Amino acid sequence: MMTRQNPLTLITPVSTELLIPLTARLLQIRQEIETGTRQPFEDLDTIHYARWIILHPKDIDYTYPSSPGVRLVFSSDFDGDIQSHLSQLAEKCPAFIDQIYSCCEGYPDPDTRTFTSRLEYLSRWQVASTAFFAGAPGRSLNQIRLESGLRNYIWKFLQGNKWSNQTSSQVFQAIQREISSHPEFQWATKKIKTPKLNLLGLAILGLVMLIMLPVILPWILLIRFFHESKDPPLGLLPSQVDESHLRELEEYEDLHNQNQFTQILVMKPGRVRLITLLSMMNFAKVLIRNLFVHGKLMGIPTIHFARWVMIDNLKVMVFFSNFDGSWQQYLGDFIDKSGWGLTGIWSNTVKFPKTRFLFWGGAYDEEHFLAWSRYYQIPTQVWYCAYPHLSIKNIINNSAIRLGLGKQLNERQAQAFLNRF
């Protein structure tokens, strides 16, 4: 069976008088991760990515009737179900959890801290994801690591021998014999399931879209002539992004071949915009479940995990992403390969570049889109990745190598297999 990957988001209020020690503790964790010090939550062997963010009221360009105060945001992408994940954090990382969340309001006092009280506290602050994408669905953290080790072993085996007089089929058979001779690789011979396109699901979606067309077209016209016409002619300019804000973002970027991205976005007022966004999210969820199962989100082959979360009575959207490459390359891929989809979702938030008919303009206005992205991006205090050396392409390729070992390949297929190294 394939492993189910899930997201967890916790948003907890921070005690005002404990903000400074919380900030110091998170900085310590960040420095430990950067220097390779193993963290307690790594012993769970289920967490692909994790991050902590201190969310200040000033980070949200929105006027509240009363300030929500400073909040601590925790995000993780993990194997298994949410309740088991929370239970593992509370049971196996109690001191670690105490050091962080004792700075938050309502956390149990030292003499009342038990597994149950910790679990109840963490569970209380869960926020459901509106949509969630996994770039390598069905693969557990353990599987990703094992398949990476298998690929590296085969590569060294190929480099350590001479194959000048061998056909591709003979080289492939030698690899099969080598792997089968090592008991530690017996797991690689077991059959695994990989995600496949759900053509029936896509057909049903197409039928539903066709039935809904008499509603969708008037709705887009409604947005065009009653909402988009009132938007400012231009979005944010690069000069409007504070230099100190940029420096703070950049100091925690490009440390590895992967990066993290977090945005806090404010919804445009009105029920029409909210309905539009939630409809786009539901559309995205269906596509993610049935179509985007081979490592690409709308043609973008670099996203490991992404999620959208609505908070503050659906007035604010939080977007989390873990991706390969640089920030500029990542957003450039969005513009080139899925600008229409990005525009259809984010155009429902304030200060997004001018759009037309929901899907045109917007993200294709690169200068204003990039400025908007930086303006609403917020710093991450702690970011953890379990495999910073692996790209999504690496992970998908490693699974294909494992699957190929269990097959009988002809000369052409064997050559294609060897080209994976």
CATH architecture of the domain at 5-131: 2-Layer Sandwich
Strands ordered across the widest β-sheet: 1-3-2-10
Total beta strands: 10
Q: Determine the N-to-C terminus distance.
A: 27 Å
CATH class category name of the domain at 5-131: Alpha Beta
Task: Indicate the overall shape.
Answer: globular
Poorly predicted regions are: none
Mean pLDDT: 94
Summarize the main sheet: 4 strands, antiparallel
Number of helices: 13
**Could you name the CATH topology of the domain at 5-131?**
Alpha-Beta Plaits
In percent, how helical is the residue content? 40-55%
Using the CA coordinates, give the radius of gyration: 24 Å
Task: Give me the strand/helix succession.
Answer: EHEEHHHEHHHHEHEEHEEHEHH
Question: Roughly what fraction of the amino acids lie in strands?
Answer: 15-25%
Structural class: alpha+beta
What topology does this entry show?
Elements: E1 5-13, H1 19-34, E2 47-55, E3 71-79, H2 82-92, H3 94-101, H4 115-124, E4 131-134, H5 141-159, H6 168-180, H7 199-226, H8 243-250, E5 258-266, H9 271-290, E6 303-311, E7 316-324, H10 327-346, E8 355-356, E9 360-361, H11 366-376, E10 382-385, H12 392-405, H13 411-418
Antiparallel strand pairs: 1-3, 2-3, 2-10, 4-6, 5-7, 6-7, 8-9
Helix pairs in contact: 2-4, 5-12, 6-13, 7-9
Description:
The protein is an alpha+beta fold and 421 residues long. Among the domains are: 5-131, Alpha-Beta Plaits (2-Layer Sandwich), CATH 3.30.70; 141-192 and 391-418, no CATH class. It has 13 helices and 10 strands. The radius of gyration is 24 Å and the shape is globular. The mean pLDDT is 94.
